[in-house]
Amino acid sequence: MGDMVSFASNGLDARGYLAVPESGSGPGVIVLQEWWGLNEQIKGVADRLAGEGFVALAPDLYHGELAGHDEMDKAGRLMSELPPDRAAKDMSGAVDFLADHDATTGDGVGAIGFCMGGLMTMMVSALRGDRVKAAMPFYGFPAPDSEPDWSGLTAVVRGHMANPDDFFTPDAARALQAKLQGMGKDVEFTIHDAGHAFMNEENALGTHDGDLAARVWPQVYEFFNAQLG
Predict the structure, then answer these.
(1) How far is Cα 50 from Cα 154, in angstroms, rounded to an integer?
(2) Distance CA 13, CA 172 (A)
(3) More exposed terminus of the chain, fewer Cβ within 10 Å: N or C?
């Protein structure tokens, strides 16, 4: 359904996968990758959103690098070696490209991400509060020692976290929610009785929960339509 596109990133070029609905227009949503990279599964998320009427852009934060689901060590290395400044610039460029795209309707865009992409969803929402108006992170958020300046966060945030989750623990999710709510931010995290990566149908960690995913996806569409439509 979608195509690879190029967009400006602080004077350089970045790339991403853009999926446009058959109607030709709709609210814009940035899709942020897991630690595997911009693989077919994440492109499928963009296609899924386009099928529901959204213009979806998944930026390639690894610039062409990928890790297979049997390469967890490589995925971890790619994530740890991702330059934070470059990722921030690429995400910011993706936000501007999507917000200014002829197919995108409404004022502002949404962001959704999974695992590493959940963390990145929170980061770009704080960085680009001028344009990111709705955010839905899945089982991912910044650790206390790497949090952004939350003063720029204007988006309504509805996150979906996992329990148990050794990567992003429920207690840490509750603590961040309380902190942000204390700052007056509209942030709510739902903690599901499911393992990390419960939305990923490729089931690399053996934790995919198809029944839960089937219940959550309609909430995703309803949320972004309500906030961006």
Answers:
(1) 25
(2) 36
(3) C
pLDDT digits (tens, 9 = 90+) for 62-84: 999 999 999 999 999 999 999 99
Residue with the two structure tokens 């740890």? 80
Report the CATH number of the 3-228 domain. 3.40.50.1820
Edge to edge, the sheet with strand 156-162 lists 3-9, 12-19, 55-59, 26-32, 104-114, 132-138, 156-162, 187-192
Ramachandran region of residue 11, left (φ > 0), alpha (ψ -120 to 50) or beta? left
> What is the rounded CA–CA span in Å between residue 32 and residue 122?
10
**Where are the chain's structural domains?**
3-228
Q: Looking at the whole model, is its pTM more than 0.85? A: yes
Phi, psi values for residue 194, rounded to 5°: -160, 160
